[in-house]
Design brief:
15 strands, 8-stranded mixed β-sheet, 3-stranded mixed β-sheet, 12 helices, alpha/beta, 420 residues
Length: 420
């Protein structure tokens, strides 16, 4: 299947250090009060110390196997910018250390990957390497969509066995370690309680539903490769459905485990209930009456409008208007998911979502607390660098309700919140 948009080369002259600096300076000048502090720090570092260094050659064989079976690569606690040349930074900007807060099952729990070694395994990443003044550490250009895209391809291939991954230019490039934390949290929930039909936490008897799978299809790719889970991914745009299917079909090892559905045309549960409006429902049009899922998961659109999304263009990871915005933003989106869950009480064992705003987390928890049919509520925080996202899960299963006081060891051994 041809890609939905023409593939864009991931290395060009616009990534030279001088042009990268000019781009950052233009961004800072356009929005001096709203720009990310990391962007300012990177511009200062580039301005002070642009230079070139020759790269030592290494003969490194690509690692065998799929993600968890791989040995951990050498790790580094430093990350940042890139170009076609190798840039020397006297005072390279640092990202907040994140390995101490990652899920212990995450392949990056021991630290950030060694970017130089990663680039030997995945050569297209090499043009985006930056080198620090000690000539030992490397990072990449996190301000470049192309660089973060190639980083994802390298990580998915070398750590998870996902050998094919393509997305259209400008679409969302999800941070892999953060998304893997979500997968591992669902593992924890399933250890507490899962459907009787599910033989274990891993394997094809666990079926998941990804709401808004996106062109990147990251959750099904990770969940299927890590745990052998079956997935149904749903979306409502041509490009997301087509590209997600392409990403699945070109990974033969897991292709049979993942189905991508277009919610606009799939003949699901609408018409089976009078308690939900098919036009406003998100889940009901996309699932059949006799389907059962161990969990559903969601990374909802963050912004309330396309205009709001366009005003926040300092992000490094892209995102089309449909991927990052919807009427009412993530709060209204999740309120709709909650209403759908009241119809699908026995069809999904764990309803889960990621929240980008803490205020949304609180609003959702109030909704859950107010309904006595909800038997279990769990929350957590996903950390990566300076970024925090919140996870909320709920279940209508009495079996899940029995685990409310059972602690989950997450990241650094702190129990998650539990309100029932």
């Amino acid at each position: 299947m041809p890609p939905p948009e023409e593939e864009v080369p991931l290395a060009d002259d616009e990534t030279s250090p001088g042009k990268a600096l000019k781009s950052l300076e233009a961004l800072i000048e356009a929005e001096p009060d709203g720009v990310d502090p990391e962007v300012i720090a990177t511009a200062d570092a580039l301005r002070a110390s642009i230079g070139t260094l020759e790269e030592p050659s290494l003969d490194i064989d690509p690692p065998p196997g799929i993600g968890p079976s791989l040995p951990h690569p050498h790790v580094s606690s430093k990350r940042k910018r890139s170009s076609e040349e190798h840039v020397k930074h006297e005072n390279p900007p640092k990202r907040a250390p994140d390995n101490d807060k990652m899920h212990p099952n995450n392949v990056f729990a021991d630290g950030n990957p060694d970017f130089f070694q990663l680039a030997q395994w995945h050569q297209p990443l090499k043009p985006y390497l930056l080198k620090t003044s000690d000539n030992k550490s490397h990072t990449i250009d996190f301000t470049s969509w192309e660089a973060t895209c190639e980083l994802n391809r390298a990580l998915l291939s070398t750590r998870y066995g996902v050998t094919y991954w393509r997305i259209p230019k400008g679409h969302l490039v999800p941070p892999i370690a953060n998304r893997a934390n979500y997968i591992h949290w669902i593992e924890d929930l399933l250890k507490l309680s899962r459907p009787k039909e599910s033989e274990s936490v891993k394997g094809p008897t666990i079926a998941g539903l990804d709401i808004g799978v996106g062109a990147n299809c990251v959750y099904p790719l990770l969940g299927a490769s890590l745990n052998g889970w079956r997935f149904v991914g749903i979306d409502v745009t041509d490009v997301a459905v087509q590209c997600a299917r392409e990403n699945v079909e070109n990974n033969e090892a897991i292709a049979d485990l993942v189905e991508i559905r277009d919610s606009r045309s799939f003949d699901g549960m609408k018409g089976f209930t009078e308690t939900a409006c098919a036009d406003s429902s998100i889940l009901l049009p996309a699932v059949t009456y006799d389907e059962m899922f161990a969990f559903c998961m969601c990374n909802p659109p963050f912004f309330e409008s396309e205009g709001e999304a366009c005003r926040n263009d300092s992000t490094n990871f892209g995102g089309s208007a449909k991927e990052v915005s919807c009427p009412g933003g993530e709060q209204r989106f999740l309120e709709t998911i909650f209403k759908d869950s009241l119809v699908l009480t026995d069809k999904v064992h764990w309803f889960t979502t990621m929240c980008g705003k803490k205020s949304t987390t609180k609003t959702l928890k109030k909704l859950l607390d107010s309904d006595k049919k909800v038997k279990a509520i769990r929350t957590t925080t996903f950390f990566q660098g300076k970024t925090a996202r919140w996870g909320v899960a709920w279940s209508f299963s009495p079996d899940a309700g029995k685990t409310n006081q059972t602690p989950i060891r997450r990241y650094i051994g702190i129990d998650d919140e539990c309100n029932r």
